[in-house]
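Materials and Methods. Structural model of Lipopolysaccharide export system permease protein LptF. The 357-residue sequence of Lipopolysaccharide export system permease protein LptF from Methylophilus rhizosphaerae was retrieved and submitted for structure prediction as follows.
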Amino acid sequence: MSSSSAIFLIILGIVVAQRAGNIVRQVSKGILPNDAIGTILTFSLVKLMPMMLSLAIFLAVLLTLTRWHKDSEMVIWMTAGLSLRQWVVPILRFIFPIVLIISLLSLFVMPWATEKADSYREQLKKRDELSSISPGAFKESSNGERIYFIESFDKLGYEVKNIFVQSRQNGKTGIITANRGSRYKAENGDNFLVMQHGRRYEIIPNTLDVSTTEFERYDIRVETKENTPEASTSQAKSTLALMAGAALADQAELHWRVAIPISTIIMVLLAIPLSFVDPRAGRSLNIMFAILIFIIYNNVLSIFQAWITQGKISAWVGLWPVHVCFILLGWYLYHRRKYLKPLIPEMFKRKAKKGHP
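The predicted structure was written out as tokens:
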């Protein structure tokens, strides 16, 4: 359990760094507001939690048994008259609660997180233009008539400092600068940016006419985005709704959710024969081979899911051919280990050794 917890924390750290970097990149470009980072990151982690747990438990079993092979403890196990298949029952007992958690996350929590994330993104799209401005970056309005620049925010974004606004109206270009400002909402629901102690320059294009006006207070109405609500995706629908739905996309998504815990069980059982290493050789080749099988398994599942959505495969067939193929692969690997045959042919090992001094 300690090994699986440590591996899960490592995977979680990698995913958090990758997802956080992507979200921060969107914030820097003005696609997302600053205060949305934590919420979107949390929903993303919840959606990826079943796959992270699946990978963590697979690597935990694989690395533990690989270490036992390397330390010749498995030799003692075999000498005592015990076969490799007798590892199946204790490992299934160990992974049962984790697979149960993965099933609950995949069938119920993951669609809930997807629906909440989509709903939150829709709310962000309806927020006013100032909500997506990053301090120190220029931001163009949705209609292209204004360009904003704000040096810094205070008090949760309702007070701003060093403001620059360029607008175009009636064939004239206006530039407004102010030392500070604030935001407020009128009784009718309109949002305004109040600028204090600043100047307004009005320029007529292709002329030298420039008029300057100093002001104590200047109010600018901030446009609120109007977006038509998007239709709910299959990923955001509940499992019960998918079972009642007749669309191919719904059936494909249902097969995918069921496939996550099933693939976890199959891959953990595959980790038993894949963990064998030759004590005279390094164990990195077997680990790379096992991870490659895990990646291929999940990618083939994704391909079959897309084929179901496109109608190339019947929904009654689903993803079961993929599971059956990897079950047969597991039987083949157990058969080779029964007769003490290497899982990776010797010619591949010789080629791998040639690449090292």
